[in-house]
Amino acid sequence: MVKIPGRGSAKAPEATESTSPAEQPTPNRFRQIIIVAGMVRKHDPKALPLVIGAGVGVIVVFVVAGLLSGLVGFLIPLGVLLGIAAMMVLFGRYAQSAQYAAIEGQPGAAAAIVQSMRGNWSVTPAVAGNRNMDIIHRVVGRPGVILIGEGTPNGLSSLMSAEKKKISRIAYGVPITEIQVGDGDKQTPISKLQRKLMRLPRELKPGAVTDLNNRLKALPSSLQAPRGPMPRQGRMPRPPRPKVR
What we know:
Layout (H helix, E strand, L loop, with lengths): L28 H15 L3 H23 L2 H32 L5 H7 L6 E8 L5 E7 L2 E7 L2 H18 L5 E6 L11 H6 L7 H11 L5 E2 L22
Parallel strand pairs: 1-5, 3-4
Antiparallel strand pairs: 1-2, 2-3
Helix pairs in contact: 1-3, 2-3
């Protein structure tokens, strides 16, 4: 019911738990750009001046070309559009580099990058690990099964072989790729992980990816529990009894 002027206000409809997408608040894009710009400036102080300079340079070139050729009405708007596009592309690359630098070295950074990728990628973080914080993430996609390891090469080699043997029993004939993230020899830097995954050959169809992922989810986790005696279940202390006078 609506409120009619001059009459008593009607009862407001009760709020439901689920709201339609149109009623949900839209994120403030301008505020997000400011936050990302702060990250970029912190990572590389020269990045923002280069982004602005690239956009202004493109616009100036088209303005000069329009004045010399007499096509001002055509080249100036085109130059403005291309200048804005150049700023957006360059700003996006600097923002991506700043994000990689912010999460580099943190546990689970590789899984977070794959989860943010577009496409049919299914990520299961930390399917195997040890007490030395060597972790393996399982990724299922069109290239097959990809095992992404974070940690030391010596610790990851045994975890990789054991996890690969376990997966091959269920995913017979499916390609299994091993990738170690890091800065050591034969390791992939975190900034190049997404590019390496996109360059892998597509071997499976989308339907096969879903079926394979459902079968692999039934596998138990290989994470090792910390050694030592398990702590006993604590009890709440009893309140002091009142003194009887």
